[in-house]
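Supplementary Methods, section 5.1.

A reviewer requested that the exact input to the structure prediction be made available. We therefore reproduce it here, unchanged from the version used in the analyses.
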Amino acid sequence: MSLKILRASCWVPFFWLAWYISGLDPQNPLFDQWALVEFYRDVKMGDAGWRDLLEPHNNVHQIGFARLVLTAVALTSGLDFKAEIWLSMIIVIATVFVMGKMMDRTGVGDEPAMHIARLFCSVLLCSPVIYWPWVWSV
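The structure derived from this sequence is encoded token-by-token as follows.
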């Protein structure tokens, strides 16, 4: 298999993922998103502070930066959950892109095994087995 085909094949799972996401129609918050809706309301009303941004969610300390990004997407998109799902896909695409750039910079970008590993990572990142980022947003 040529190196160009291997290099291009890592993007094939993203076409499947885009097709899958385009068929979703999330209308209501699911599970933990209800707590985020309350947080978004507090932000919109000007009642949210740093404590709200950094407080644990389900006893897990989420990174404040992720909440800031999600809040920006939620407020600019009018709480469109599909926009959050597309944001998840953009983050995964950026991950695979940066992985390829790192491979090129370290000098292993011409090894077929590295591109097979990159393809494998793309398949896993876009897999329906980890469906929750695609159905449940970020």
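The CA atoms of residues 20 and 135 lie 10 Å apart. These observations are discussed further in the main text.
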